[in-house]
Amino acid sequence: xxxxxxxxxxxxxxxxxxxxxxxxxxxxxxxxxxxxxxxxxxxxxxxxxxxxxxxxxxxxxxxxxxxxxxxxxxxxxxxxxxxxxxxxxxxxxxxxxxxxxxxxxxxxxxxxxxxxxxxxxxxxxxxxxxxxxxxxxxxxxxxxxxxxxxxxxxxxxxxxxxxxxxxxxxxxxxxxxxxxxxxxxxxxxxxxxxxxxxxxxxxxxxxxxxxxxxxxxxxxxxxxxxxxxxxxxxxxxxxxxxxxxxxxxxxxxxxxxxxxxxxxxxxxxxxxxxxxxxxxxxxxxxxxxxxxxxxxxxxxxxxxxxxxxxxxxxxxxxxxxxxxxxxxxxxxxxxxxxxxxxxxxxxxxxxxxxxxxxxxxxxxxxxxxxxxxxxxxxxxxxxxxxxxxxxxxxxxxxxxxxxxxxxxxxxx
Length: 412
What we know:
This protein is mainly α. It has helices spanning about 5, 20-40, 50-55, 60-90, 90-110, 115-130, 130-140, 150-175, 180-200, 210-215, 225-260, 260-290, 295-315, 320-345, 355-380, 385-410.
């Protein structure tokens, strides 16, 4: 690492090499539960887009802009929240996020117009913003070093499970009691999880990070001078431009291209997320055994995922085959998830964990913010196959970014 990173002095020692498995498991489980809740918020709106389009007379561009607003707020807040987490600790920020999620769900319950749906996006974006600085600050401080690869695997897996649960959760209540009941149930779910986290708050405590060098220089932004940080940012920006297609538009794309039912298309999104979770599980073992090759593992995973999306875009395999290819994409990308987090850890100065993770992962939010605007234009023009092809292009470019991170980390 260069001198800009070396000047920062960590305020807390590295995690103890030997701690009880039960202690690590408890921390990993609580952080995973919180992370799943964060990903649940990503899909509070998209699974219901076809319903909102009919009920409120909205276009795909308008619906996509809801997610753009969500991720603009989340991305901006994520970059800033990293500084807050380093200053006050992760735990109070985490609890504040759940209050925002509850407000988002209640806003959905009372929504009667596009403005009401926008309020859902605003509150959910505010709640989602701090999660990566919060999660990784807790994991890096509280989990033993030798189990971090597995911790990152569980973290990514829980996120995919959160994504997988949301469409099924909302579809169940929509079919039985209407979509408003789904939002009310989601608010109750968030309140219950917040209660669990508060009861186990001792396991979520992190030490405040002091930066002696930053105080002398009057700045806490020295890490922004590191090129590898921006390569990491670019990787997240590009790779999530692909994931945004699956989350926001895969359901209407499959319905338009192959005439599949709304229920089948929505279930395909859940299948993508479950396959991603399985990939994360396997990827945890890969990351633990190949920590030095994390950038190459990520590059291979993303490259294979891009090929699978192209196969889905051609339509050669029919409706079921195309949906299977998209689900398999989740598995391929999932395998690279834990190695991705190891790759970012290697590029992170130890005393700037919250700030670097906040900045780097804001690329994820920016990718999600830009993607609906771009893909919405394609969708409104009926360019469904081209939408998937473009997603494959972005995923291919993320391979270049991952290799760029590896090259600069190895050289530091």
